Each structure stands twice: as structure tokens, then as C-alpha cells.
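Below is how a single chain appears once it has passed through the pipeline. First comes the sequence as given, then the structure the pipeline wrote out for it. We keep one example in the README because the format questions we get most often are answered faster by looking than by reading.
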Amino acid sequence: MIKGRSKGEGMDPQIADLARTAGTTMVTLMTTNAWESARDGLVSLWQRFQPARAESIGEELEASRADLLLARETGDAESEAELTTEWQGRVRRLLVARPEVAEELRRILDELNPRLPDQRPAVGEIHLTAEASGSGRIYQAGRDQHITER
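Resulting structure:
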């Protein structure tokens, strides 16, 4: 079980990791067939733990989805990252206020996980180091890389 921390203490890394995973998952699923299940699952958390905000969270999720669809249509790559960060923050604040949400959130994410189009885990930071000499070549990528040499 995740325990909250008192003011002045650092953020519990489990809460931060869970919030990152949840925010990333929600934004990833916004453009998939699993969107309604994902939205309903997140809204249900707010209904149980912060009922006064549940309706507005549902509306904000729908607005975020519309923003993401428009961003993809117009080639605005930054919006997806911004929306992910925004939802990570919202979930993190809910977890800080109500740490007991964590178990239910994990259950929802586990149910949604098979529906994710990309099964690779989300990575927060990647550090790559390489050294080449002579006519050596180095190709590095934090994710997909496509190289066509002729």
C-alpha cells in the first residue's frame, strides 16, 4: 500500500511512478477503441474518492481527447506530451490527497494494459553514450529508429 507523506518530505516514488503510468496510459488510449473504458475507469475513481469533481474530470478527459485528435490532425507533436504531463499531474494530486486510490488505480490500469497498442513500457529517462573512431558509425535511439543507407 502506498502511504502519503507529510509536508516537507519528498514525493513517494511509488505515487510518482503510478501517476506517470496512469497519465501516459490515459493519453495513449485517447485515440484507441479502448478510450471509453479508460475514461470510465478514471472517472469512477473520482466518483468514489472525490465525487464533487467526477463530472468535471469526465468533461476534462473528453476535452483532452478532442485536443489530442486535433493535434494529431494538424501535426502538433508537443500537445501529446503536454496532455500526458497534465494528466500525470492530476492523477498524482489525487493519489497524494487520497493514497487509498492507488490499489484501485492499479486494478484499472491492469485491465486496460492488454488494450494498449504498444506493449513496451514507458521510459522516463534514457541516457545513451557512444564513442566512434575512424570511419565508425553510431546509431542510437531512445525508441524507434529507421535507417536507410544506400
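Confidence is low (pLDDT under 50) at residues 1-9.

See the next section for the split statistics.
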